[in-house]
C-alpha cells in the first residue's frame, strides 16, 4: 500500500473512530529500524547510490555536486 492511498483512506474514515482504530492496527505503514529505506540522501531523499562512509549520507549524484565544496578532490 502506498503512502498516498494510506492517507486517502484515513480521510474517508476519520469520522468513524472504531473503523479508524481497526484500520490503523492492520494497515498503517511499518516504522522501519533497518534496511534500505532508512538510509536516504540528506539533500534529495533518494535511497539508491547512498554513500554513508565518513558520515556523508548523500546519494552519488548529490555527492558529485557538492564534493569540491566539502573538500574532496578528483585525482583521475
Features:
mainly alpha; two-stranded antiparallel ribbon; 76 residues; 2 strands; 30s Ribosomal Protein S14, Chain N
Task: Classify the secondary structure makeup into a structural class.
Answer: mainly alpha
Q: What is the CATH top level name of the largest domain? A: Few Secondary Structures
CATH architecture of the largest domain: Irregular
SSE run: HHEEH
Terminus-to-terminus distance: 45 Å
The count of β-strands is 2
What's the CATH H-level homologous superfamily of the largest domain? Ribosomal Protein S14/S29
Helix run count: 3
Helix share bin: 25-40%
- What would you report as the Rg, rounded to the nearest angstrom? 19 Å
Amino acid at each position: 500500500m502506498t503512502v498516498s492511498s494510506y492517507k486517502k483512506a484515513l480521510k474517508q474514515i476519520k469520522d468513524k473512530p472504531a473503523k479508524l482504530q481497526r484500520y490503523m492496527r492492520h494497515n498503517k505503514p511499518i516504522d522501519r529500524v533497518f534496511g534500505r529505506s532508512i538510509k536516504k540522501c540528506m539533500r534529495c531523499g533518494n535511497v539508491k547510490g547512498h554513500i554513508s562512509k565518513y558520515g556523508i549520507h548523500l546519494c552519488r549524484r548529490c555527492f558529485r555536486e557538492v564534493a569540491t565544496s566539502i573538500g574532496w578532490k578528483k585525482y583521475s
